[in-house]
Amino acid sequence: MTSVSPPERATTTIRRVRPTDGPALSAIYAPFVTDSAISFEYEAPDGDTMAQRALVIDATHAWLVAECNGQCLGYAYAGEFRSREAYRGTVEVSVYLHQAARGRSLGARLYHALFAILADQGRRMAIAVVTVPNPVSVRFHEQLGFRRIGVIEAAGYKFGRAHDVAYYQREIGQDGRDCS
Predict the structure, then answer these.
(1) Which letter, b or e, does each residue of 151-179 get, where b requires 16 or more Cβ atoms within 10 Å of its Cβ?
(2) CB 3.0 to 4.6 Å from 44: which of 16, 33, 75, 96, for a disulfide?
(3) How far apart are CA 67 and CA 74, in angstroms?
């Protein structure tokens, strides 16, 4: 993975994903796949695959990138929670940051920007799925107003053992519009 060390005074911008972001997205995501059970994927997707995923999701929901001096520091996205029509107002959200970009409130900035877009789309509820135990992610989501609503025990199997996932929920809009 490339080194990321933005100057302290450099401006970080949050923008929609672009087709050329694939390699950077892949570089950020790969350690979550290969070195942890945070992601339940077994093989890290390449840049082309990540770009395709991002563009498909961004076309219907939102995928945001945090960038500083041309370097991608992290991303957040919201996608379909369930496929049936009545779930359209509920989305599943995720945020991933480059290791060097953590601890700078960038994840919160990405989520807040994402929630604003989702509210404009008429989305009402965000669901975050967190592999547990993961105290850093749990604290992060709770500080942003998510509340734990349940746990699925042994939901995934990776690295020779079963892992639980906790579901966290946060309201993002209240207008009741149809999101079709």
Answers:
(1) eeeebeebeeeebebbbbbbebbeeeeeb
(2) 33
(3) 7
Q: Inform me whether the pLDDT recorded for 180 exceeds 70.
A: no
DSSP state of 49: H
pLDDT tens digits for range 137-156 = 999 999 999 999 999 999 99
Is residue 100 scored above 50 in pLDDT? yes
Has residue 80 been placed in a domain?
A: yes
**Is 25 inside a domain boundary?**
yes
Q: Based on the structure, what is the number of domains in the chain?
A: 1
Give the phi and the psi of residue 8 in degrees, each rounded to 5.
Answer: -55, -35
145 is a domain residue = yes
Structural domain harbouring 142: 12-171
Element (H, E) at 62: strand 62-68
CATH number for 64: 3.40.630.30
Cα(112)–Cα(120) distance, integer angstroms:
13
